[in-house]
Specification:
This protein is an alpha/beta fold and 209 residues long. The chain is built from 9 helices and 6 strands; from the N terminus they run E-H-H-H-H-H-E-H-E-H-E-H-E-E-H. It has a 6-stranded parallel beta sheet with strand order 3-2-1-4-5-6, with helices on both faces. Strand 4, helix 8 and strand 5 form a beta-alpha-beta unit.
Length: 209
Protein backbone atom coordinates (compact mmCIF):
# COMPACT_ATOMS: atom_id res chain seq x y z
CA UNK A 1 0.00 0.00 0.00
CA UNK A 2 1.04 3.58 -0.52
CA UNK A 3 0.09 4.53 3.06
CA UNK A 4 0.19 2.43 6.22
CA UNK A 5 -1.63 4.91 8.46
CA UNK A 6 -4.60 7.23 8.06
CA UNK A 7 -5.44 10.01 10.51
CA UNK A 8 -9.10 10.89 9.99
CA UNK A 9 -11.02 14.00 10.86
CA UNK A 10 -14.48 13.16 12.27
CA UNK A 11 -17.20 15.71 11.49
CA UNK A 12 -17.82 15.97 7.78
CA UNK A 13 -15.24 13.28 7.00
CA UNK A 14 -16.12 10.05 8.81
CA UNK A 15 -19.64 11.04 9.88
CA UNK A 16 -22.19 13.23 8.10
CA UNK A 17 -22.86 15.45 11.13
CA UNK A 18 -23.13 18.93 9.60
CA UNK A 19 -26.83 18.80 8.57
CA UNK A 20 -27.98 17.91 12.10
CA UNK A 21 -25.59 20.43 13.66
CA UNK A 22 -26.96 23.14 11.37
CA UNK A 23 -30.52 22.17 12.25
CA UNK A 24 -29.82 22.38 15.99
CA UNK A 25 -27.90 25.65 15.76
CA UNK A 26 -30.75 27.02 13.67
CA UNK A 27 -33.16 26.18 16.48
CA UNK A 28 -30.88 27.96 18.93
CA UNK A 29 -30.86 31.05 16.73
CA UNK A 30 -34.66 30.86 16.47
CA UNK A 31 -34.84 30.83 20.27
CA UNK A 32 -32.77 34.02 20.27
CA UNK A 33 -35.20 35.64 17.85
CA UNK A 34 -32.72 35.62 14.98
CA UNK A 35 -33.71 33.04 12.35
CA UNK A 36 -30.97 32.27 9.86
CA UNK A 37 -30.94 30.21 6.64
CA UNK A 38 -29.56 26.68 6.92
CA UNK A 39 -27.38 27.20 3.88
CA UNK A 40 -25.62 30.12 5.59
CA UNK A 41 -24.87 27.94 8.62
CA UNK A 42 -23.63 25.07 6.44
CA UNK A 43 -21.32 27.35 4.45
CA UNK A 44 -19.61 28.39 7.68
CA UNK A 45 -19.62 25.02 9.46
CA UNK A 46 -17.59 23.68 6.57
CA UNK A 47 -14.94 26.32 7.29
CA UNK A 48 -14.75 25.94 11.06
CA UNK A 49 -16.86 25.93 14.20
CA UNK A 50 -15.34 29.28 15.11
CA UNK A 51 -16.49 30.73 11.79
CA UNK A 52 -20.12 29.72 12.27
CA UNK A 53 -20.25 30.85 15.90
CA UNK A 54 -18.68 34.20 15.02
CA UNK A 55 -21.18 34.77 12.21
CA UNK A 56 -24.14 33.78 14.42
CA UNK A 57 -22.87 36.13 17.09
CA UNK A 58 -22.75 38.96 14.57
CA UNK A 59 -26.34 38.27 13.50
CA UNK A 60 -27.56 38.21 17.10
CA UNK A 61 -25.38 41.03 18.41
CA UNK A 62 -23.79 38.65 20.91
CA UNK A 63 -20.24 37.39 21.52
CA UNK A 64 -19.57 34.04 19.83
CA UNK A 65 -18.85 32.59 23.29
CA UNK A 66 -22.46 33.29 24.27
CA UNK A 67 -23.78 31.58 21.14
CA UNK A 68 -21.54 28.62 21.98
CA UNK A 69 -22.82 28.52 25.57
CA UNK A 70 -26.47 28.54 24.47
CA UNK A 71 -25.80 25.93 21.80
CA UNK A 72 -24.01 23.62 24.23
CA UNK A 73 -26.84 24.01 26.72
CA UNK A 74 -29.34 23.10 24.00
CA UNK A 75 -27.37 19.96 23.10
CA UNK A 76 -27.02 19.02 26.77
CA UNK A 77 -30.80 19.20 27.12
CA UNK A 78 -31.76 17.51 23.86
CA UNK A 79 -28.80 15.17 23.32
CA UNK A 80 -26.26 14.87 20.55
CA UNK A 81 -27.90 14.90 17.12
CA UNK A 82 -28.29 11.63 15.25
CA UNK A 83 -25.63 11.15 12.59
CA UNK A 84 -24.27 8.27 10.55
CA UNK A 85 -21.01 7.37 8.80
CA UNK A 86 -20.67 8.40 5.19
CA UNK A 87 -21.24 5.65 2.62
CA UNK A 88 -18.21 3.40 2.00
CA UNK A 89 -16.55 4.32 5.34
CA UNK A 90 -17.25 1.02 7.09
CA UNK A 91 -16.10 -1.06 4.15
CA UNK A 92 -12.94 0.98 3.63
CA UNK A 93 -11.94 0.98 7.31
CA UNK A 94 -12.35 -2.79 7.49
CA UNK A 95 -10.40 -3.48 4.30
CA UNK A 96 -7.62 -1.04 5.17
CA UNK A 97 -7.22 -2.60 8.62
CA UNK A 98 -7.30 -6.13 7.20
CA UNK A 99 -4.50 -5.14 4.80
CA UNK A 100 -2.33 -4.09 7.76
CA UNK A 101 -3.22 -0.40 7.85
CA UNK A 102 -3.98 1.53 11.01
CA UNK A 103 -6.73 4.13 11.42
CA UNK A 104 -6.62 7.07 13.84
CA UNK A 105 -8.83 10.09 14.58
CA UNK A 106 -7.76 13.66 15.33
CA UNK A 107 -10.93 15.72 15.84
CA UNK A 108 -12.22 18.91 17.43
CA UNK A 109 -15.11 16.87 18.85
CA UNK A 110 -14.61 15.70 22.44
CA UNK A 111 -16.10 12.69 24.23
CA UNK A 112 -19.11 12.27 21.95
CA UNK A 113 -16.84 11.00 19.17
CA UNK A 114 -16.53 7.73 21.09
CA UNK A 115 -20.32 7.48 21.40
CA UNK A 116 -20.80 7.93 17.67
CA UNK A 117 -18.11 5.39 16.80
CA UNK A 118 -19.45 2.84 19.27
CA UNK A 119 -23.03 3.38 18.13
CA UNK A 120 -22.02 2.59 14.55
CA UNK A 121 -19.84 -0.35 15.67
CA UNK A 122 -16.72 1.32 14.26
CA UNK A 123 -14.55 1.58 17.38
CA UNK A 124 -12.77 -1.67 16.55
CA UNK A 125 -11.29 -0.15 13.40
CA UNK A 126 -9.37 2.63 15.21
CA UNK A 127 -6.05 2.35 17.01
CA UNK A 128 -6.37 5.70 18.81
CA UNK A 129 -8.63 8.76 18.95
CA UNK A 130 -7.52 12.21 20.14
CA UNK A 131 -9.51 15.41 20.58
CA UNK A 132 -8.38 18.97 19.99
CA UNK A 133 -9.60 21.65 22.34
CA UNK A 134 -9.49 19.34 25.36
CA UNK A 135 -6.02 17.80 25.54
CA UNK A 136 -4.50 19.23 22.35
CA UNK A 137 -4.53 22.59 20.61
CA UNK A 138 -7.11 23.04 17.89
CA UNK A 139 -6.26 22.65 14.23
CA UNK A 140 -4.38 23.90 12.23
CA UNK A 141 -2.04 23.29 15.16
CA UNK A 142 -0.53 19.82 14.53
CA UNK A 143 -0.33 18.81 18.21
CA UNK A 144 -2.80 15.94 17.93
CA UNK A 145 -1.16 14.62 14.78
CA UNK A 146 2.28 14.86 16.35
CA UNK A 147 1.07 12.99 19.44
CA UNK A 148 -0.22 10.12 17.30
CA UNK A 149 2.97 10.04 15.24
CA UNK A 150 5.21 9.94 18.31
CA UNK A 151 3.09 7.55 20.39
CA UNK A 152 2.52 4.99 17.67
CA UNK A 153 5.80 5.34 15.77
CA UNK A 154 4.16 6.44 12.53
CA UNK A 155 6.31 6.93 9.44
CA UNK A 156 5.44 10.45 8.30
CA UNK A 157 6.03 9.56 4.65
CA UNK A 158 3.52 6.71 4.90
CA UNK A 159 0.88 8.55 6.90
CA UNK A 160 -2.10 10.29 5.31
CA UNK A 161 -4.51 12.71 6.99
CA UNK A 162 -8.03 12.89 5.53
CA UNK A 163 -10.28 15.86 6.27
CA UNK A 164 -13.02 17.99 4.75
CA UNK A 165 -11.75 21.42 5.78
CA UNK A 166 -8.61 23.36 5.00
CA UNK A 167 -7.72 23.52 8.70
CA UNK A 168 -7.46 19.70 8.63
CA UNK A 169 -5.11 19.97 5.68
CA UNK A 170 -2.94 22.60 7.34
CA UNK A 171 -2.75 20.58 10.56
CA UNK A 172 -1.44 17.67 8.50
CA UNK A 173 1.07 19.74 6.55
CA UNK A 174 2.26 21.34 9.79
CA UNK A 175 2.96 17.84 11.09
CA UNK A 176 4.92 16.89 7.98
CA UNK A 177 2.48 14.26 6.75
CA UNK A 178 0.50 13.94 3.54
CA UNK A 179 -2.99 15.43 3.37
CA UNK A 180 -6.13 14.56 1.43
CA UNK A 181 -9.07 16.96 1.13
CA UNK A 182 -12.49 15.27 0.97
CA UNK A 183 -14.86 17.75 -0.64
CA UNK A 184 -17.40 17.53 -3.46
CA UNK A 185 -16.85 21.22 -4.22
CA UNK A 186 -13.73 22.61 -5.95
CA UNK A 187 -11.67 24.92 -3.76
CA UNK A 188 -8.12 26.15 -3.28
CA UNK A 189 -6.19 23.81 -1.02
CA UNK A 190 -2.71 22.97 0.19
CA UNK A 191 -3.60 19.27 0.13
CA UNK A 192 -1.42 16.70 -1.62
CA UNK A 193 -4.54 14.90 -2.82
CA UNK A 194 -8.22 15.69 -3.14
CA UNK A 195 -11.23 13.40 -3.53
CA UNK A 196 -14.89 14.05 -4.21
CA UNK A 197 -16.08 10.63 -3.05
CA UNK A 198 -14.67 8.34 -0.37
CA UNK A 199 -14.61 5.47 -2.87
CA UNK A 200 -11.61 7.23 -4.42
CA UNK A 201 -9.53 6.35 -1.35
CA UNK A 202 -9.07 2.77 -2.56
CA UNK A 203 -6.95 3.88 -5.48
CA UNK A 204 -5.28 6.67 -3.52
CA UNK A 205 -3.83 4.35 -0.89
CA UNK A 206 -3.33 1.52 -3.43
CA UNK A 207 -5.42 -0.73 -1.22
CA UNK A 208 -5.37 -3.57 -3.70
CA UNK A 209 -1.76 -3.02 -4.66
Amino acid sequence: MRYDNIIWDFDGTLFDTYPAMCRDLGKVMDSLGVPVPQEDLMARFTVSRKAVLTWCGEQAGLPPEEIDRVYRAWVAEHGQPEAHPFPHIREFLARFQAAGGRNFVFTHRSGSVHDYLAGADLTKYFTDVVSAGTTYARKPDPAGNNYLIATHGLDRERTLAVGDRELDILAAKNAGIHACLFSPEPQETAADHRIRELTELDDLVSLDG
